[in-house]
Amino acid sequence: MAYRIQFERLGGPEVLARVDCEPGAPGAGELRLRQHAVGLNFIDVYVRTGLYPVPVLPSSLGTEGAAVVEAVGSGVSGFKPGDRVAYATGPLGAYGDVRVMPAAHVVHLPEGISFEQGAAIMLKGLTVWYLLRKTHRAQAGETVLWHAAAGGVGLLACQWARALGVRLIGVAGSAAKAGLARTHGAWAVIDSSRENVVQRVLELTEGRKLPVVYDSVGKATWETSLDCLAPFGLMVSFGNASGPVSGVNLGILAQKGSLYVTRPTLGTYVARRDQLEEGSRELFEQVLSGAVKVEIGQRFALADAGKAHAALESRATTGSTVLVP
Ligand code: NDP
């Protein structure tokens, strides 16, 4: 019997429960996948708590995984049973040992990338791809700020930025985390537990401040991030780890120097198949070339997903976290 992790009510990690299920045969346009590794993401926390609402309860969870194709529905081309695959978008339901999902979200996983590595990079790595390559096309020699630099998205960003010649200033919540960001390619690091971020940015840029800030912490760092931007700078607010940014008076962008702000999400950037394939190809190239090494900071059994959520929310994790079915 197959199983999945689901929740019947919104709440803390304790609402996650393992239930038996029967995924069934794939319908038209779908694949049935035997999952080998599942990626843990902060987005899963937002879904579980209701910040990102689910249509019905009970609900399954999870959007990132690496798997083998077990069965192919009608009308699907390009996939056959036995193919190694991975995905980062699509309907919730990655938290299971077997699942059915639309083939449109699935890509082939290269031989040189393991299932665990695939589950560790698909969503987080595609996020770094679009943030550094599309939202703002970061240039060699440019300096940017990146919050949560020792996290799952963060350690991939440090390395990809280094590969592009971008000077990434990483913000992290402890000396140990700051050290990790540094060894993964951050040009400079700020330990936010004991250093003033704006002050350090002024020092590091000799008063010029920055063209771009990448902020996934949200509420707690909104104003700090704006204060790190040079006139006409771009604030990329792409997450809510400390809570969502809300109630913003747009006038603050004028006061702080005619700033720009965007609140991007991966789904928009890989909405078309050619976009998903472009991003995946660039991501896999970075990993296969060795420019980006996949840092799996911790592994949990999928059945222990609640423990993994608690660790992520309490800032106890570094790098990517993989759930093993
Ligand atoms: P991380 O591994 O980065 O974990 C979150 C980190 O945020 C923590 O480790 C912690 O690092 C930092 N943090 C700061 N304040 C808090 C707080 N109050 N509570 C918890 N954590 C806090 O997670 P992910 O790699 O999964 O995701 C990183 C971010 O990127 C998330 O905000 C996520 O929503 C966002 N994201 C956005 C996407 C998009 O397309 N918009 C796609 C994918 C991810 P420290 O202790 O160093 O401060």
Describe it.
The protein has 325 residues and is α/β, with parallel strands linked by helices. It folds into two domains: 2-113 and 294-324, Quinone Oxidoreductase, Chain A, domain 1 (Alpha-Beta Complex); 123-266, NAD(P)-binding Rossmann-like Domain (Rossmann fold, 3-Layer(aba) Sandwich), CATH 3.40.50.720. It is built from ten helices and 16 strands. Strands 3, 5, 6, 7, 8, 15 and 16 form a seven-stranded mixed β-sheet that branches. The two termini are 13 Å apart. The mean pLDDT is 98. It binds NADPH dihydro-nicotinamide-adenine-dinucleotide phosphate.
What's the short story on this structure?
The chain is of the alpha/beta class and 325 residues long. It is built from ten helices and 16 strands. It has helices spanning 42-49, 115-135, 152-164, 175-183, 197-204, 222-227, 251-255, 266-269, 273-288, 305-313, and strands spanning 2-7, 16-21, 30-40, 59-60, 65-72, 84-87, 98-102, 106-108, 143-146, 167-172, 188-191, 210-215, 229-237, 260-262, 296-301, 320-324.
Please give the CATH class of the largest domain: Alpha Beta
Task: Assign an overall shape.
Answer: globular
Distance between the termini: 13 Å
Q: What is the arithmetic mean of pLDDT?
A: 98
Please give the count of helices. 10
CATH superfamily of the largest domain: NAD(P)-binding Rossmann-like Domain
Class derived from helix and strand content? alpha/beta
Strand runs, count: 16
CATH architectural arrangement of the largest domain: 3-Layer(aba) Sandwich
Ligands in the structure?
NADPH dihydro-nicotinamide-adenine-dinucleotide phosphate
| CATH fold field value of the largest domain | Rossmann fold
Q: Count up the domains.
A: 2
Largest sheet entry: 7 strands, mixed
Low-confidence stretches: none
Strand portion, in percent? 25-35%
